[in-house]
Amino acid sequence: IETTLLHVVLAQVAPRVAIVSTVLSVYGLIWLVGHAHAVRLAPLRVVAGTIVIERGLVARAAVPLADIAAIVAVDGKRRDALDLSLMGPNVMLELRAPAEVRRLLGRVRRTDRITLSVDDPDALRALAKIG
After folding, report:
1. What is the pLDDT of residue 131?
2. Strand bridging mode 108-116 / 82-83
3. Which of 81, 88, 90 lies closest to 122, judged by CA?
């Protein structure tokens, strides 16, 4: 609705700007749909002793289960941890060695604490052999 209204208003003043604005809005919508699809296709999973975290086009990390020192329950975002949750974190992985997280546009960040949203934290603790 906003894009249509903005297009109509801009078309009266600057028709070329209206077209560019509409094209950019449509591109943004396509990008958001693509990101949502990528998140759906790549859930949090454990492969060959490694937790693979892929958050669509935004972040990717692989954390060996052996590097997890603790899995702590949390009830929201934390300043001291990198948030890779989808809807709000419920666990925090405390790592023995910093993990490399690849971000959008090739940026890389190293962190020793990652917050995630996990359906079954107890199953994750059992996989990581953390009591």
Report:
1. 55
2. parallel
3. 90
